[in-house]
Structures are given as structure tokens and as C-alpha cells.
Amino acid sequence: MKFVQTICPYCGTGCGLLLAVKDEKVVGVEALTANPVNEGKLCIKGWNVHEFVGHPDRLKASIIRKDGELVEVSWDEALNFTASKLQSIIREHGGNGTGLLSLRKVLQRRKLSAAEIRASPGQPECGPLRTPLT
Amino acid sequence: MARALLDSKMVDCVIAFVKGTGPDDLRVAFISNPEDAAQVIPATLNPYSMTRLLRDYAEGNAAVIGRTCDVRAVIELRKRNRLPGEVYTIGVTCSDLKSLPGVLRSNCQRCDERVPVMADVSCVLLDGVTAVEAATDKGTAILATGSFVVHDAAEDEAQVLAAMETELDTARNQKAKDFKLLQMPLSVRFEFWFSQFDKCIKCYGCRTSCPIYYCKDCVLDADRGVVPAGEMPASRMYHLTRLAHVGDSCINCGSCEAACPVQIPISKLYHMAQTELGQIFKYRPGYDDARMPLTLFAAAELGDGRIDIKGR
Amino acid sequence: MYTRRRIQMMRNLLETVGIEPERLRLEWASSAEGAKFARTVSDFTETLRELGPSPLKVKVS
User: Fold this and answer.
1) Residue B198 and residue C7: Cβ atoms within 8 Å?
2) Which of A1, A22, A34 sits opposite B24 (nearest CB)?
3) Which residue, C27, C33, A33, is CA-closest to B305?
4) Which of A102, A123, B175, B231 is at a distance of 20 to 30 A from B74, taking alpha carbons?
């Protein structure tokens, strides 16, 4: 039984937490008291982070709907597909009419050149609405 | 002592504080390897209840090296059949509290139960030596596993309690101050508590971190209807229900308040409730095997429909 | 059997958070005591009317 220190993957706040790990499986979550961001407190999503890690419905690869079926594809294909779709939307509606909702943590780390949308299990994550895409 | 316990295979793991990554970072660890036993630190300042971690994650027999509140929680969980196996308690007196008067958590400030007399083995720091005393048969068994010199405990305990008197007095004064709300008129109390409850964001942190909370299928879960999902501010029934379910056994560990992101003084409310109810039912949670008051009734109480809440 | 204690506890808790304990009342009546039941309910309704709407219904400012 050990406790592994990490940061919550949900919103952009980045609360510190300890994953309770038993036999190499994540079985629970504890709040990290020493972290200055959350000082030992978590929101309901943070307290239940362990639930999605091993959940059978969790997305583990990119998927695109082709002919009505969801098909697993490579990262490259997924990114290219998303980028080209976004580009056509921008062409049609202009940059001011387009926004991208994503996790602040993702946007801060990557330049917004290709469409990098995090595959999150089930719930779309909303971060701050970014400035218009050009 | 941790090493002796693990070596003798009396327990599968020892739950105690160890150092974390920063200078003030104390974490709870589950130590099963006797080699790691040296990491144990007999400190008392981390807000989270060790016993709650024991309840949630431990398997087999365990020993808890913790504070009075951790030990009392073990006793309460034992009554509710929620311990994973045999649990041995080694209580450490909260002696490092006096070093940080301003930083102390509010529930520690009003705690006047800092000597873990109810633990199997209680430890007190006296002039650089740790005095140990076994209070139960299990405690004697623990001390038999290693070569500990057992001091004459009675005298030492008196000495410790005397030294602590000033601290305990400060704590009692603080408690009286904290509980002043009980003397205020009903409307003042209502305004205060319900404006606090309205801050709630329903993170359920208080419930998760409470060592006394023991239901596997809690009525407060969103799909049970008492606390409607998606309603904000949180339904006040959440707090009132929790108070009714856990309030008679609150041991003032403060984990709830430590977990609350909006800083509702939960521990104060529950401790107040328990103090009142404890006087009415003559019950002190966490000290002995006395059953919870709601699981008992006295023969004299049957047949009389009159209730007097001032009857103490 | 446990009712008496539970009601006692609830009244105390209600008082701790500032709700009038008089809003909670315990009476014992068997199914044969119809008249007593009716009287208790009327009495209690009157008590509640005098106490006014529950503070829980009023939004805290």
C-alpha cells in the first residue's frame, strides 16, 4: 500500500493529491496537505479521480466516426482530421467566429497550431475561452 | 516499536507519519517492511485522520501510531465493526502542539484530551525519553515483542498531566469561547450556521475524511434523493443529515474542517453537538466499549411519552 | 424503543443549529385512540401556526 504524489488531471487549477495504490492499482485518492494550491482540500471530481483511471469506458486511443462506426485511429490521423475540419470552419465563418475550449494546462504547454484536443473520458472539459483563432 | 511489531508478525502493517517532500510535509504511510520502520516520526500535526485511512485501505492486522483522536477513532470503528482485522493502537501524546500556538488548527486548540490514555500503549516524551505504558492486554503483548524498559507509569503520567495543565486550561478556555454560540439566541445561531451551509460546494470532502463515517451505501449520495444532484447551493439536508448520523460520536479530529475548501467550521458544530449530546446521554465516544446511545434504551425510558431536552 | 432517544437527539441538534425545537414533537398513540390522535394533530398545528413558517423556508440573506 503506497501513496503516490501527483497533480489532479481535471481542471486547470492543478490540486495536489496522493493516489492510493495497492498492488499496482489505483484504489483511492487522498488530498495532499503540503501543496500550496489546495492545502489538503479537493473538489468532488478530485476526490473521485481514482474512479476513471481503471474504468472500462475510459478512452485509451483516438477514435473517429467513419460510416457511422467509431474506429480507432492513430494520433496523426486524428490530429490531421481535426485540424482540417477546424480550418474549414475558420474559412467559412472567419477567425472571430471560432473558439477552442480546452484545458488551460494543455494550452499553456503547447502552441495552438494544430488542433490538440485532449481525449478525456466521457465529460468534455471546459477551460477559459481562448482568443480567436486565425 | 514499529520495527518490533512488524518483525514479530503481530501486524501486517504499521500506519504512522513519515516525512513527505517538503520541510513541513508530514504524510501517512502504511509500512509493511520492517526495514522501513525507522522512518516513523511520532508527530501530531497533520490534519488527516490516520484511522480513516486504516478503514479505507488497510487489510489484515495493523497497528496505528497516532494521536488521541486517531486512537479514539479506532475504538469507535471497532464498535461499528469496520476494522479490517486486529488493530493495535499506540498513542502519542500531542506534545508538539505547544511549539506552534498560532498555527494550530482550531479543533486542536480547544482539545483537552491530548493524552491517549485509551490506547493499547501510550507514549509520552519526558526529558528526552519516551515513556511507554500499556493500558490493555494488547498493549502488554506489544511491549513484550521488544526490549522496552517500562517505567512506573502512574507517577510519570501524573507528572505529564501536571505539566500539561496550563496547556489544557488554555484549551478549555478556547473551547468555551468556541462554544459561545450555544448561548446565543436561536435566530443568531440559525443565521450563522445556515449562511455557512450555503457556502457548501458539495465536494463531500467532510464525509470522505470523517473517520466515524462508516456506511458503504450512504444516504447522502446523489442518487438517493436526499441531496438532489445538481442543486446549488447545496441542500441543507446534507449537513443536517450528517449531523444527525455522526454527531453523537464526533471525536473532534478536525479532518472535516481541514478538508473543506470553503472553510465551513464543521468541526466546531459537530464537536458542540457531541458535547451537548454527550451530557444528555452520558456518553463519551472513543474511550471504551460503551455502545452508541442510539443503539440502546433504558427500561425507565419506556412508557413515558414526555421528553425533556434539558434532562441531564 | 429507540424513538425517544432519537427524538431527544434531534431536538437537541435542531436547537444547536438554531431551529426551534418545538417544531418536533413526540406523542404515543395506538391505532385505537383516534380521538387522541386528532387532538394531538390540531394542537400541534396550532403550535406551528404560532411559530410561523420554518426558517428553512426563508432565504438567508
Assistant:
1) no
2) A34
3) C27
4) B175
Query: Is there a contact between B186 and C18 (Cβ–Cβ < 8 Å)?
Result: yes
Predicted confidence (pLDDT) per residue in C17-29, tens digit: 888 888 888 777 7
Give residue-wise pLDDT tens across range B194-238.
Answer: 888 889 988 899 998 898 888 878 888 877 777 777 777 788 888
Identify the structural domains of chain B with CATH numbers, from first to last. 2-175 (no CATH), 179-301 (1.10.1060)
pLDDT above 80 (res B20): no
> In total, how many domains does chain C have?
1
How do B62-66 and B13-19 pair as beta strands? parallel
- Domain ranges (residues) in chain A: 2-53, 59-134
Q: Shortest CB distance from A33 goes to which of B29, B46, B260?
A: B46
Q: What is the complex's ipTM, to 2 decimals?
A: 0.78
Which of A21, A23, A42 is the best substitution to test chain B (most B C-beta atoms within 10 A)? Answer: A42
Rounded to whole angstroms, the Cα distance separating B292 from B151 reads 35
DSSP letter (8 states) at residue B125:
E
Domain that holds residue C41: 3-57
